[in-house]
Amino acid sequence: MNGDFGWALRAATFGLALATGFSPAAAPAADGKLIVGVILPLSGTFANEGRQYEQGIAAYQKLNGKTVAGQPVEIVTRDDQGPGSGDLARRLTQELILRDKADVIIGYSFTPNAMSAASLLGEAKRPAIIVNAATSIITERSPYFVRVSWTLPQSAATLGDWAAKNGIKTVYTMVSDYAPGIDAETWFKKAFIAGGGQVVGEVRTPVTSMEYAPYLQRVIEAKPDALFAFNPGGDVSVAFMKAARERNLAGAGIKLLVTGDVVEDNSLSLIGEGLDGVISAHHYQSGIASAENERFIKAYKEVAGAEAIPNFRAVQAYDAMDLLYKAVAKAGGKTDATALLEAMKGITLASPRGTITIDPQTRDVVQDVYIRRGEKVDGRWQNRTFETYKAVADPGKTAR
Amino acid sequence: MSSLVAVLVDGVAYGMLLFLSAVGLSVTLGLMRFINLAHGAFAMVGAYLAVVVVAAGLPFLLALPLVFVVVGAFGIAIERTAIRHLYRRSALEQVLFSIGLAFALGALANLIFGPQQQAIQTPAWLTGRVALAGLDITSYRLFLIAMGAATAIALIYLFEHTLFGARIRAAVDNRRAAEGIGIQVERLFALTFGLGAALAGLGGALSVEMLGLDPAFALKYLTMLLMVVAIGGAGSIEGSLLAALGLGTIDALFKYLLPEAGGFVIFGLLVAVLLVKPAGLKGRAA
After folding, report:
1. Shared-domain flag, residues A245 and A374
2. Which pLDDT belongs to residue B1?
3. What total number of domains does chain A contain?
4. Which residue among A21, A149, A236, B226 sits deepest, i.e. has the most Cβ atoms within 10 Å of its Cβ?
């Protein structure tokens, strides 16, 4: 027993020494190099999401090279293992700044992870570009946050407004019971009720629930014109969409409305028939016809394989890199926090999703939100845009 | 009224899926007294195998027995090489080994298949809806109910009415005496472990359509499976069936009648059962 312990102690000591002392990344950055600390969920349940961001970043560098304004760009990637690891995300942020001398952070797929790092950014004076985390309030937690992704109120309120204007009078809401779900519920209702709609029932389901049949049975009995739903994506959303089809919501005359992340491009083949006629609001779908999107998808497939389909996450990471490159160029090659943040404020980017702007006051993204309907096009299920809300800002802020 | 029945039928189907996935764990945990936290990993292996062979063109109905046999053989191989050394070790060592095995298999799945969700191509007659006595139910759920019932009957027969079953019960109760009367306990345990793995594989293959599949599958549903075994009583086929059906229907019923709290009722139920009957509903006192 004692021998085991001694062995374990030696192994741990050696491991720590490796991690702290001999790591090549511990060396201070050479002058004139731009070091980008990247924090993504790369293992566990959400590894799939992390890979999308990683490949989006790689696709950008494939198209635009690894130098900007004459400086080589070095990417240092760390794994925050998904949500529920806010502490880890904070520690990784600290390590990237102190040890790897990161000039800027790109990352945060989940709200709690971004929140936990907020105070650090101010202390260290490092800007951070958020690649996803979509709860409205995050950018107000630190003046060093810039969000290039989206906010849930952006999608949910737009969808609520569309529903009210398109003959839907009564809605039942069903959201996953955690912060983003409550954001989605709140803002959908706000916009829908403001447009004259009526909410006839609401339910919050456990975040990891995989069995939706009983909840849906209740919705069917309430006979609303539509069901508005939000859940956290991945297998949970696929299970929800399949259950909605199984219970035959459409047959009961109930339209299904969801935020676009529930039916993102990557899971469409898994949802299959369940997508038929589903209305969603989102800021990206791979079918967008534009030169930028074509260029992006081609580069993405070169990086990730010919069969790979990029989703909104890959685009958001691609845009995070674009925002950084453009800001460094605009700041004349300066990479300190003040210069970068000033350059980012008000910047306009030609994204694969369409034109996006960083609001100079809120540092949050302003973008078009597409209203789509699930259809089978050329034998493949897709979300086809039939209406566009132009230049939507985060209603979580404009409302105040 | 008819919608209440519909909810209950859905619950029974979900319960049957739980039963199919958990019963193998009940066998290894209860009959062999081996704490096998890699059970979900065997289910994952079965699920990936099913996805691969169905994508390669094998009909879904033929893929199921194939998965059963292959994962069973894989289980026997693991038992012969590693698990048999652990029978007489402490519970902690069994837990550490099997959870380590689950992590390793999950990482392997990530390497081979990547972290994305997998889909299985089920035949059209399994994805349709059927009207049955005024009820609108999907054929896949009916299929699950039939599979679960058939598996339960086969297992009860195997353990209660065959020589194989009698030998296992004898070997578990008194290994030395069983060996003394000429029962080859080593071979018997390998076969039983293989049976547990094969059942896990079958449950995994049947789960893909409803629960999806990714490398986290090995651990994601382990809690639910352990709940079924704990409530039912380890080693009891009837107990697992009762617990799984109970969890499935009660979960569905409360989600329907009391959606605000419905998702959490079953966990309260677990606590209540274990307080009143620590060995589970059908468990024999250890």
Report:
1. yes
2. 58
3. 2
4. A149
The whole-number average pLDDT for the span A206-221 is 89
Radius of gyration of chain A (CA): 22
Distance from CA of A243 to the nearest CA of B (A): 9
Q: Specify whether A336 is located in the same domain as A295.
A: yes
B145-192 residue pLDDT tens: 999 999 999 999 999 899 998 998 888 888 889 889 988 989 999 999
Please state, in angstroms and as integers, the Cα–Cα distance from residue A314 to each residue in A300, B14, B156, following that order: 8, 35, 51
**Which B residues, 164 through 223, put their C-beta within 8 Å of a C-beta on chain A?**
210-212, 214-216, 220
Same domain membership, residue A162 and residue A231: yes
Q: What is the mean pLDDT of residues B77-96?
A: 92
Judged by phi (left if over 0) then psi (alpha if -120 to 50, else beta), residue A108 lies in left
Judge: B211–A248 Cβ closer than 8 Å, yes or no: no
Q: In this structure, are A253 and A162 located in the same domain? A: yes
- Inter-chain residue contact B255 with A242, CB threshold 8 Å: no
Domain membership of residue A256 (yes or no) is yes
Q: Are residue A42 and residue A138 in the same domain, yes or no?
A: yes
Tell me the shortest Cα–Cα distance from B18 to chain A, in angstroms. Answer: 12
Interface test with B, best of A46, A246, A276 (most B CBs within 10 A): A246
Q: Any idea how long chain B is? A: 286
Do residues A107 and A128 lie in contact, with contact meaning Cβ atoms separated by under 8 Å?
A: yes
Check if the beta carbon of residue B247 is closer than 8 Å to that of residue B15: yes
The SS3 of residue A311 is: coil
Give A299-349 pLDDT, tens digit per residue: 999 999 998 889 999 999 999 999 999 999 999 999 999 999 999 999 999
CB contact under 8 A, A213 and B114: no
Which CATH number does the domain housing residue A184 bear?
Answer: 3.40.50.2300
Structural domain boundaries, residue A88: 31-150+291-363
Do A102 and A186 share a domain, yes or no?
no
Asked if A187 and A129 sit in the same domain, the reply is no
What global pTM score does this model have? 0.86
Average pLDDT over residues B232-246: 92
